[in-house]
Amino acid sequence: MLRSVALAGSEKRRSRLLYREATDGRLFALPFVLGFLVWWLYPMGYSIYLIFQDWDLLTPPKFIGLANITKMLADPKVGISLVNTAFYTFVGVPVHLLVALILALALNVPLRGIAVYRTVFYLPSITPIVASAVVWLQIFQPEFGILNAALGQVGIPPVKWLFDPVVAKPAFIFMSTWGIGPQILIFLAGLQSVPESLHEAAAIDGADVWQRFRHITVPMISPVILFNLVVGIIGSFQVFTSAFIMTDGGPQDATLFTVLYLYRNGFQYFRMGYASTIAWMLFFIIVFFTVIQFKMANRWVYYEGSKR
Amino acid sequence: MAGMEQSMALGQRREIAGYRGRSPRRLVGHAILHVVLIVVGITFSVPLLWVIVTSLKAPNKVFTYPIRWIPDPLVWSNYPDMLQILKITGRPAMLLFAQNTLIIAVAATLGSVISTAFIGYSLARLRWPERDYVFALCLATMMLPGVVTLIPTFLIYRNVGWIDTFLPLIVPSWFGMNAFYVFLMRQFLLSLPYELEEAARVDGASSFRILWQVMVPLSGPVIATIAIFSFLGHYNEFMGPLIYLSSNENFTLALGLRMIQGRFGTQWPIVMAASTVMIAPPIVIFFLAQRYFIRGIQLTGLAGR
After folding, report:
1. DSSP alpha helices (H): ranges in chain A?
2. In which band, very low, low, confident or very high, does the pLDDT at B199 lie, cut at 50, 70 and 90?
């Protein structure tokens, strides 16, 4: 009798604790939920509304139906900017990942002084993007830049880099390869989580270095490759700062990337509706490629200890 | 006999697997790798070294080739010149920009740490019905391209009169609006043992007290990681200040450096001195807090697992 009263009491206390926990949980997470409403949900709704408006911030917004969309589909600059952005992304990201993986493999070898090497390859990525844009602007400078000076020493004639429409985009990819420190570190973490026993077992069975890399290392680090790929593509599609500072889209629109064109429309021409339309197009393109990558991941990404 | 066979087999295994041991082939391999890493490493280092060296050169010595890696003469005066070349309301502009940057970065970092502590704790350790949905939102905002909110958030700030103030650059951090930091905090708190919390709860401690007196003191590493990333993120940010700040006296270092590049672009030593000033703090922070840095980046990557 006494015991059951005590039990009932503790039961009541337990449910009171659970109730308090749930209240606290909601309360503590409230800032995030509010933030999501204010900085994601409402703006997304707002910008859908803007797609159908013509608004220059001076006069009240005017409903124009689908005119922004038809205008965008016919706008040659939108097409150019998409081609530029796609080039930068689909050439740049694979190059970055490949270089980062090779460097990570080298930096995973237990050499003497390996910490120094790792620091050397990581430091460039700490450079603020504005500073690296300013610095690379001078490095690429055709007459006095150190890049052409260095090439001149091995007999290569000067390249016009950011002033040549053909070379400008590869030059941007070259420059951003300088800042792949984070990708290297992420690959390195992946490599360090590959159990050595797998390599040893395969080596005893006569697998050579390439076979071990191809059939052990790559599958084991495939989740990390996917991560770098997804994050790299999302980021590259939104490239802005370096182009804004270094070329402002030139020469001949060769580095007019989509976000740069969006920025111009929004904050230089004050076409709020049109800029929002471009933003949504880019949004869908990025989400499309992100989803595709996750779908394809089933085929090549190996998750240890799961049957996914 | 059997023992010898075994040790031979082991020796052989070592050589095939080629991990430890000091076989000649191994040493040659390492030597080649050293050479390759040194050459590539020097290539990677050239831009940063060149910035520093150029910032110490006389204007007429900048364009001489082959490059002189030790400036002669060493012109330290480029730094004070850089401060004097651009002034805003009588003060050296770069100092003003640095001050603005510091205010924004510190205020936003404080917000990030406090808000992610609450949100991360709630998502990791408190049980409430809608929790998993909120966590899914958090993951979604990590992946969604922010470009779509660019125009509308600008318009919202314009409506509430926040344009040309620091508020748009600070306030979102107080609401955990960098979902990645929330994620990091949650993952870390998940790894702490449950007994800690149970004991405190049975003793009648509130969630608030448990968070600040049990969880936070144990979360030093992850808080350091979030603080460093948040600080550097705001320090480096360009697009936000570009859109929200309009008057020169509110500019951050990122905007200021672009302004100096725009106005004095031909005076390379001045521009490079300004660049060095902007690059130095992150590098110092990196060397002071390398551990948290690398940990943070690698956690990001392993989040993908």
Report:
1. 2-36, 42-51, 67-74, 76-107, 114-122, 129-139, 146-153, 168-177, 181-192, 196-204, 209-212, 218-237, 241-246, 258-263, 272-300
2. confident
Is residue B209 within a helix (H) or strand (E), and if so which, with residue range?
helix B207-210
How far apart, in whole angstroms, are the C-alpha atoms of residue B140 and residue A288?
Answer: 14
Cβ-based contacts of A282 with chain B (< 8 Å):
145, 147-148
d(CA B176, CA B157): 18
Q: Are A253 and A77 in contact (CB under 8 A)?
A: yes
The ipTM, to two decimals, is 0.88
Q: Which residue of A has its CA nearest to B128?
A: A22
The size of the A-B interface in CB pairs under 8 A is: 280
Enter the pTM of the model. 0.89
When pLDDT is cut at 50, 70 and 90, the band that residue B8 belongs to is very low
When pLDDT is cut at 50, 70 and 90, the band that residue B142 belongs to is confident
**Are the CB atoms for A180 and A122 separated by under 8 Å?**
no
Say yes or no for a CB contact (<8 Å) between B278 and A303: no
A185, with CB counted inside 10 A (0-12, 13-18, 19+), is: buried
**Residue A288 to chain B, least CA–CA distance (Å):** 11
User: B151 and A187: CB-CB below 8 Å?
Assistant: no
In a mutagenesis test of the B interface, which of A10, A126, A237, A292 is the best target, namely the one with the most B β-carbons within 10 Å?
A126
For B148, the closest of A47, A57, A128 (CB atoms) is A47
Query: What does each C-alpha distance from B226 to B108, B193, B237, B254 come to in angstroms?
Result: 11, 21, 16, 21
Domains (ranges, CATH) in chain B?
Answer: 2-54 (no CATH), 85-302 (1.10.3720.10)
